[in-house]
Amino acid sequence: MRALVISGGGSKGAFAGGVAHHLIEEAGWKYDLYLGTSTGSLLVTHLAAGALEEIKHAFTNVNQTSIFSNNPFIVKQKGKINRIKINHFNVLKNFLKGKKTFGESQNLRTLIGQQITPSLFKSVKKQHREVIICVSNFTLNEIEYKALSECSYSDFLDWIWISCNYVPFMSLVIKNRQEYADGGFGCIIAIEEAIRRGATEVDAIMLSTEVQLVNRMRSRNAFDLLLSTLDFMGDQITQDNLKVGNLLATQKNIKLQTFFTPRVLTTQSLVFNKEEMEQWWQEGLDFAATLLSSKSQD
């Protein structure tokens, strides 16, 4: 049984889409399990259905408005550099409405429903390919994995949306009387879960470099500090996930192949820029092609 696992990483998910595109269409690799966390969860249903061009178009055309119904950020571009500041007016508006987060992402839930149609959902079920979404249950303090085969259409879309909700900047969702948020708060890349579900071969796409190549700038304000804190926590979770995944793969004689980004794509993964994401998708395609070609020659 072969599994494709895609990590969280915001807009960098475009690179993962390009890698997966090559593995499935050009290399012809077949998968039984597709596991996604956060941005990875947005990709895996289409990948399982073989709808590669559809997900490429949908993913690379996402922007801030597609995601946020109340955007807590102001994004200013200086040359090729994006600067993010807090939108005090929108944040205050959210708090006055009694919300618990700085921003809201209802637009993303609508977009997911437009892109993952009932017919696409049914086609994946018919092909007997399992799609697994990782979410964080804050109420029970647990990581949960939601399988397409066990969900209704509406519930499955909710879980994908929940998996992407990077609080406190996006919606905190109450479902089944419990609070849920981004799966990446508990598991950035679900290699361990793929092995637990019986995968004997795992291809894991990790949306960061293999070694740290960036020293973070000093925080300019409380908003910067919060982002840096969350990024630091995410980096530690990633390292733990990879250590456990590699250890299990060794113990159980699982073939594990991890694809890292060859460079730092961005340090602003909550900024969605069409030109950048189209470039990253192509980079992912080219990177996977070059990597597999070099391995075949060894």
Structural description of this entry:
It is a single chain. The protein is α/β, with parallel strands linked by helices and 298 residues long. It is 46% helix and 19% strand. The protein has eleven helices and ten strands. The strands form two sheets. Strands 1, 2, 5, 6, 7, 8, 9 and 10 form an eight-stranded mixed beta sheet that branches. Helix 1 (13-26) packs parallel to helix 2. The longest helix has 30 residues, at 222-251. It starts with a strand and ends with a helix. The model has no long low-confidence stretch (mean pLDDT 92).
Could you name the key traits of this structure?
298 residues; alpha/beta; eight-stranded mixed β-sheet; two-stranded antiparallel ribbon; 46% helix; globular
Task: Annotate the secondary structure layout.
Blueprint: E1 2-6, H1 13-26, E2 33-37, H2 39-49, H3 52-60, H4 64-67, E3 73-78, E4 81-86, H5 88-96, H6 106-115, H7 118-126, E5 130-137, E6 142-147, H8 153-164, E7 173-175, E8 178-182, H9 191-196, E9 201-206, H10 222-251, E10 255-260, H11 274-297
Parallel strand pairs: 1-2, 1-9, 2-5, 9-10
Antiparallel strand pairs: 3-4, 5-6, 5-8, 7-8
Helix pairs in contact: 1-2, 1-3, 1-11, 2-3, 2-7, 6-8
The gist of it:
By secondary structure, this protein is an alpha/beta fold. 46% of the residues lie in helices and 19% in strands.
